[in-house]
Amino acid sequence: MIEHFINSYNIKPADAIVVKKENFGILDHYVIYLGQDNYGEHLFIANYSKGIQFIKKDELASFLNQYVPVRLNRFLGNEVQRIDAIKRAMTRLNEKSYNLIINNCEHYANWVQNGLPKSGQVEDIGKALAISGASFGLVGLASKNKEVAIVGFLSAALGLLAIELSEQK
Questions:
Q1: What is the distance between the alpha carbons of residues 30 and 48, in angstroms, rounded to a whole number?
Q2: SS3 73
Q3: Cα(first)–Cα(last) distance of the chain, in Å?
Q4: What is the dihedral sign for C-alpha 34, 87, 14, 21?
Q5: Phi, psi (5° rounding) for residue 131?
Q6: What would the pLDDT profile of 109-165 be if each residue is shown by its tens digit?
Q7: How far apart, in whole angstroms, are the C-alpha atoms of residue 117 and residue 119?
Q8: From edge to edge, which strands make up the β-sheet containing 51-54?
Q9: Is the pTM for the entire model greater than 0.70?
């Protein structure tokens, strides 16, 4: 099954497979394909709540029962850069610093592929929170409702903070 998937989509080492939970999955999850080991086993690595780890064969089967691939983020560099990306991925193996806002699976995948830990999902959520919070804050001011204004502006501040923290590292 994995072999067929990899061959069908011509997946190469350092490509990121973006998956989503079946039925109402909101967030994308990122898995990096590392290639095959000396025994011909396909290797995948990802940053999850338990840290940056290989996805073992039995875990992969379970994983594919819960998640469906939605797109591939192809590695865009040359073959030398591809090897460097794989080495970069391996330097953080077993690191346990997962954080939904500042070091999630998307941060890791982008860092592996281009050296920049960035999460478009965190930025998008932060922007939405900042805009909606500011709007509620202004509505609260206009209607002289202090509670709405405070909650709105605090939400906007949290959104801006999420954007800022997401881009740090």
A1: 9
A2: strand
A3: 37
A4: positive
A5: -70, -50
A6: 999 999 999 898 888 888 888 899 999 899 999 999 999 889 999 999 988 988 887
A7: 7
A8: 51-54, 42-48, 28-36, 16-21, 67-73
A9: yes
